[in-house]
Structure formats: C-alpha cells, structure tokens
Amino acid sequence: IYRSRDYRKVVPGAKHDAAALEATAAANSKALTKYFADLVKAGMRKVVLPKGTIRLSYAEKLLFPSRLTVDLGGGKLKLNTTKVTGAVPMEMFRTEDAHLVNGTVEGVYFEYDYENCGTSNPEHIAFFAMQGECRWCSVEDVKCAYTVSSGTTFGSHGLVNGAYSRIHKVPGKWEVDAFGRFVTPFVELGGMCSNKYMTVARYLGYQGITTKSSHLEISFYDAAKKPLGSEIAMQYCRVLVPAGAKYYRVAAEVDGAETGRETDLRGYFLKMPRDCAFRRISYDWGRTQGMSVVAGFNMLFEDIEITHCGDESCRCASDAEDGWDCMQ
Predict the structure, then answer these.
(1) What DSSP string describes 152-209?
(2) pTM of full prediction above 0.70
(3) For 324, which of 111, 165, 186, 300 is 20 to 30 Å away at the CA?
(4) 159 with 151: CB under 8 angstroms?
C-alpha cells in the first residue's frame, strides 16, 4: 500500500491481499496472547522476542498477563489496518507487575484510508491500552510512531490508560443536617464499589466547583444505616470506602437544598491503573495530540519525548482530556 499525492487516499498495490494480511495479523495476536499466558503458567518472568516486525490485528487483541516482562528485542509491533474506525491491538487489563520494553509500536498514519473512514473516527484508533485496575506495570524504552490518533490516553495514539469505572447519580432530595449543611439522601452502594475507592463530582467529572463549595464530605453507613465514618472528599478526591459499608451520603456547604439538587453530583467508583510508570518513551508522528491522559493514580512519566504530533484535531503535545478528575 502506498499514499497518493492526496494524503487521504490509499492506493493498494497489485499484489496486496488485505484479507490474507488481516488473517495473519489476527493469528499473530492470538498466538502471542496464548504464548505469554503459557509462559506465566510455566513460571517464566521474562520473554525476549526475536527482532523483526510482527503485525497485530485490530479485531484480536494481544493481551499481556500479570508478572511477565515482554522484551521486544529491538523489534516492532505494527497495527495491520487501513479502514477500521476503532482499534486497540494491545492491552494490559487488570494486570499486576506486567512490563513492555525495548522496541517500537507502530500505527498506520501513512496507510490509513482517511477518504472512506473520515478524520473523526481515527480518534478511536489507539495502539496500547492500560485499562482497569492495573498495578505496578510499566512501559519503558519504547518508540510509538506513525499513529492515527493521539499519543497516550493515557491517550489514543499509542499508550492508552482508561478507567473501567462505574457511575451512578446521587438522588436530588437534599436535607439540612445538624451543622447547617445540606446533605443527600442515603445512596445504596450495592455491588458498585468492588475497588474500595470512590469519589463524587459532577457528571463526566469535568473540572469546576459545581456546588459553589470545594468542601464535600462523604459519610458511610452499614446495612442498618449506622454510621461507619466520614471522609473529607473535596471535589474529585478519592476516598476509601470502609469495610461493611452499604450506604453513603454526601454533605456540601451550599446556600440551600435547591442549589444542592442542581449540582448533578454523581458517585464514581474508580477502577484505574495505579503505581505504574512510563519511562524513556518517544512519540513520533501522531495525527492528534501526543499524550491524552485520562485516568490513573500515582503514575510516573519520565523522559518522554513528543515530536510531530498534533497535525489535526487537538493540536498540542499533551492534552489533559478527562484526567482532571481521575489523575488526582
């Protein structure tokens, strides 16, 4: 495949067989996922891949298991697609002590069919995802190049970091408490909070003090609605949910119950990567921003280099995205 003078058009070569290439890429992804899992079962902690280029499928994710370091051996993992509107070919999901090092991950900046797929859909084409409750994972000495979207989502053009969270709306009938504050009704936790942490904020978590007060307090109760304790939540700050909690209430220093009802508070039960690191990573040629930090806690970014990113859409090196609430 090569790019015509109009950069949005893709011209396939005479011998290009898209179906065969995709079948091979899907087989590669599936085989590597099984291989990595088998290594862990056998007690191995590190694997070094032979240097070369391995094509991966957008339809069959390569999954990294816990307690394994994958050394690319200076080689390359490349996304195989020209028309897909969303892809995350590699993922760490709820893993612990998993590491990707020493190589290149490459997208399809120059091969993508912009003419038929548009320029908004590629926003969803990422390359690497660190999702859910990952712990003590890292990506080091990796070059992320030629990606159709942003750099780290942590960002959609290379390294992605998302929170598989649960959200529900806090009921709107607020009452006044003994301290003159206005508080929400009891909200049942149910099975929502499997991660033991939560926060409260406006829906979507966008920054801003919607209650006209930066002081929020979450109080927890057992099944009989007996108090278990309270925590100062501020806005967007994570709070540890005590064992045995079945309900919670939120108190805010606002000027009336009506103001409280209008704040549209939500309870966020966060499932996000913690204590992970991204070291010595370069982002080269990204169609949108280099990094889009979405969600994480106690994350280390060290020696990051971003070059020629932000051609379209978000024209910057790094964008906080929705990380305003989830990165504190």
Answers:
(1) -TB-TTSEEEE---EEEEPPS--EE-TTS-EEPPPEE-TT--TTSEEEEEEGGG-SS-
(2) yes
(3) 186
(4) yes
